[in-house]
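Researcher: We are triaging several targets before committing to wet-lab work. For this one, the compound of interest is zinc ion. I'm pasting the protein sequence and the ligand SMILES. What I need is the predicted three-dimensional arrangement of the protein with the ligand bound, expressed as structure tokens, so it can go straight into our comparison scripts without reformatting.
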Amino acid sequence: MTSQRSESMPSGVRVGIDVGGTKIAGVALASESTDVLAEYEVPARQGSEALVEDVLSVVRALSDDPVSIGIGTPGRVNSSTGEVENIANLAVDYVDLGRLVAAATCVEVHVENDVNAAALGVAAQAEAASTVVCLSIGTGIAAGVVRNGVLDRGFSGVVGEVGHVPIEPHRWPCPCGQVGCLETAGSGGAAVRLWPHDTPPMPAIIRRAHDANDPLHMQAVDVRDTVIRAIVDIIDMLAVTVDPEKIILAGGMAKTGQPLLDEICAELSRRAEGSKFITSLHLDDRLALAPSGVPVGAIGAALCGKN
Ligand SMILES: [Zn+2]
């Protein structure tokens, strides 16, 4: 994505900020559409003071006078108060992000977790679909659920934390304190841990698993199957609990692209063999990759601001 600072500094726009581990990226949306009028980003820095400064600098570069500001961020987010705890990649233990940005801009600010923000952005791109799940496969794996354009947060805000269902047969320990969480196998972080031979791991794992002459072929088959089965367990769970019209794969591992989608669809069809029930779900038809090059996280954050 190029850093595009708007020369005209549009007013009356909705600003959305996507807090990432390496950059703070923002968009300005026309107030009644999802058209991106301007984009701007700065490299992410460590610490809560730097985070607030960086968010403010991106907001100010995008608009002098936004009608709303939405922020999507990793960490444990209280979307009612705008407080955020434990953004591990940015060394932030706690930040009163919503209040600090609102006080500096005199604009209403809504803070949402990054998976939910991406889900709103993805759902806006797939606007024909009634219920959309965005399955974000990055360091961890989690889903955001959007029903008719509205985020489903559930009672305590853990809707979509499917990575912490502890049914993975290897019984590896998870940072959440359980053992056997699906995230310990079906995530980008797991692929990095299980496959130290290549960076990024997933494209290489898939390529080597299809090459019988590769010296690491058998190990690649084993790791590929472990990762893909855990992801498909999660897709199955989302299908029967949420029953979405679309399941959109996003996050770092989704950048593997079509080869990843092909592996997931192959596992889905293996499971459908002999099961009229699974066949009838047509899950492969509902799966898609998030559009590449579209800042869905920042767009979704701007839409959170509207909500
Ligand atoms: Zn866990």
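Researcher: Any quick observations?
Model: Residues 19 and 73 are 5 Å apart (CA to CA).
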